[in-house]
Amino acid sequence: MTPFIAPEQLMREGGHSSLLRLGANESAFGPSPKAVEAMARELPRISWYGDPESYDVRSALAVRHDCAVENLCVGSGIDDLMGLAVRAFMGAGAVALTTRGTYPTFAYHVTGFGGRLETVQYRADGMVDVDALVARANELRPAIVYLANPDNPSGTLLPPAEVVRLFEALPRQTLLFLDEAYVDFIDERSAFPPLLHGRLLRVRTFSKAYGMAGARIGYLISTPRNVVTFQKIRLHYGVNRNAQIGALAALGDVGFHEHVVKQVAQGRDEYYTLAVSLGTSALRSHTNFVCIDFGNAERATTVMNKLLAHGVFVRKPAAPPLDRYVRVSVGTPEERLEFGTRLRAVLAEVDR
C-alpha cells in the first residue's frame, strides 16, 4: 500500500489537466523570494555536490536554536530522518509505539526495517491520548515512541507540559521521536522545551512554513552522541546543494516567514467560518490545514471523492475518530474562495 497517492497520479487517473492542490499541506505561499534568488543564482553550479556536512545550514540552525553544530543533523526531509532513526535504534522485531492514524510514514519505516508497530487510539476529541501512550509504553517497553506535535492529520496541539509528562513517563530505554513539522505555525513557547537528551529526537522541516517541500530538507536536534549515530548511517550526499542554499537563505528571511504564518492563521479562520456556514464544525488547528467534520466516515469519503471529481485534491484521516473529517490545506485567498464554491456544489450533490 502506498502511504500517499500524489496529486500527479490522481490527475492521470482522473483525466484532470489541473487540480486545486489542497491535500498535501504544501505551502500555498511558496518559498522566500530570497531563497528563490539564492538558488537561482547558484543553479549553474548544480554540477557540484553539496556539502555533505551541510555545515553552513547547521551553523545557522545552531544560532537559531541556541545549541551547538554538533547537536544538529540535516537530512532530506523528516521522512529521511525517520528512516535513519528506525535503522539506528530499532533492531529486527523491536517494537515502536504511536497513535493509530497519525502521520503514516513512520509506520512504513518500522515495517520496512523489520520492526513491529503498536498503536493506541486518539481521544474522542481528536487529541493524542498521553495516558494511553504512557500505559502502553510501560507495558510494551518499545524502542521508539513517535509523536507528531502539532499532530497530523488532526492539527491538534499537546501543551508542553503534556509532552514533558509523556517523555518523563516513558521507560528508560525508550526514545521519543518528536515530529515538529508544523511547529513554525505556533508560538515557540507552546512547543516542547528546548531539551537536549539522549532519549529525545526532535525533527523539523523546511517543507511547510518555509515552502520548500520539493527541495527535501529537514533536520534533527539531539545530543552529539545521537547525531554522530545519524551521521554514520545517513546517505552522504543525500541533501542536494540547492536545498542547502535555499534553506540558508530562508532562515535569514524572517519577515517572509512571519508573513506566511500570519496568512495561514487567517486562512484557518476562514475555514472555521466556512464550516459553520455549512452547519458543521472543524477541529481547531495549529498547522497549515484544517479538518472539517462531515458527520461520519462514509459521508466524508464521499465528499472527498466528489471534490476530486470537481478538480479539488484533499485528503481525509483514515482511522477513527478522525475518519469523519476531510483535511484541507490552507490555500491562497483565491484558492480558499474557490474551495468553498466547489465544496458547496459537492454538498448539494451529496445531500440532494
Descriptive report:
The chain has 352 residues and is α/β, with parallel strands linked by helices. It folds into 2 domains: 7-30 and 255-351, Aspartate Aminotransferase, domain 1; 33-252, Aspartate Aminotransferase, domain 2. The protein is built from 12 helices and 11 strands. The chain has helices at 7-14, 33-42, 55-65, 78-89, 105-112, 130-140, 160-169, 224-233, 241-252, 254-277, 297-309, 333-351, and strands spanning 20-21, 72-75, 95-99, 116-120, 144-148, 175-179, 200-205, 218-221, 289-293, 312-313, 325-329. Helix 7 links the parallel strand 5 and strand 6 (175-179). It is globular, with a radius of gyration of 20 Å. The model has no long low-confidence stretch (mean pLDDT 96).
What order do the SSEs take from the amino end to the carboxyl end, as H and E?
HEHHEHEHEHEHEEEHHHEHEEH
Can you count the beta strands?
11
Class derived from helix and strand content: alpha/beta
Q: Based on the structure given, which CATH architecture of the largest domain is correct?
A: 3-Layer(aba) Sandwich
* Strand line-up across the major sheet: 2-8-7-6-5-3-4
Number of helices in the DSSP assignment: 12
How much β-strand is present in the residues?
5-15%
* C-alpha-based Rg, rounded: 20 Å
Give the count of structural domains.
2
**CATH class bucket of the largest domain:** Alpha Beta
Termini distance?
34 Å
Spans of at least 5 consecutive residues with low confidence: none
Helix percentage range: 40-55%
Sheet of most strands: 7 strands, mixed
Quaternary arrangement of the chains shown? single chain
Assign the CATH topology of the largest domain: Aspartate Aminotransferase, domain 2
Shape: globular
What do the pLDDT scores average to? Answer: 96
CATH superfamily caption of the largest domain: Type I PLP-dependent aspartate aminotransferase-like (Major domain)
